[in-house]
């Protein structure tokens, strides 16, 4: 298996995940908000990952304990009818933009 494409930080988080799915290439993102008072993924980003899990088959996601590092192996988009609670931390548009 080829090595993962590595990224640093949380910039373009959704776009990186979607590009990984479309290209079929694994990615690794390190240093997610390591300088913040509350380091790691935001609730909305974790929720976006859950949405991706519902829309794909075979995706493998590994997140470290602090949420500052993520390994993402893309799956195949299956689509179909799903139900997902976007929560109240971001608008529905934020999720739809990534889709």
Summarize the helices and strands and which ones pair or pack:
Layout: E1 5-8, H1 13-23, E2 27-30, H2 43-55, E3 56-57, E4 60-63, E5 70-73, E6 76-77, H3 92-98
Parallel strand pairs: 1-2
Antiparallel strand pairs: 2-5, 3-6, 4-5
Description of the structure:
With 99 residues, the chain is α+β, with helices and mostly antiparallel strands. It has a single domain (5-98), classed as UDP-n-acetylglucosamine1-carboxyvinyl-transferase, Chain (Alpha-beta prism), CATH 3.65.10. A hairpin with a 6-residue loop joins β4 and β5. The radius of gyration is 13 Å and the shape is globular. 11% of the residues are buried. The N and C termini lie far apart (27 Å). It has helices spanning 13-23, 43-55, 92-98; strands at residues 5-8, 27-30, 56-57, 60-63, 70-73, 76-77.
Give, in order, the helices and strands. EHEHEEEEH
Average pLDDT, to the nearest integer?
Answer: 91
CATH superfamily heading: RNA 3'-terminal phosphate cyclase domain
Number of domains: 1
- Beta-strand residue percentage: 15-25%
- Globally, the shape reads globular
> Which CATH class applies here?
Alpha Beta
**N- and C-termini, Cα separation:** 27 Å
What is the fold-level CATH name, i.e. the topology?
UDP-n-acetylglucosamine1-carboxyvinyl-transferase, Chain
Count every helix, treating DSSP H or I runs of 4 or more residues as helices: 3
Please tell me how large the radius of gyration is. 13 Å
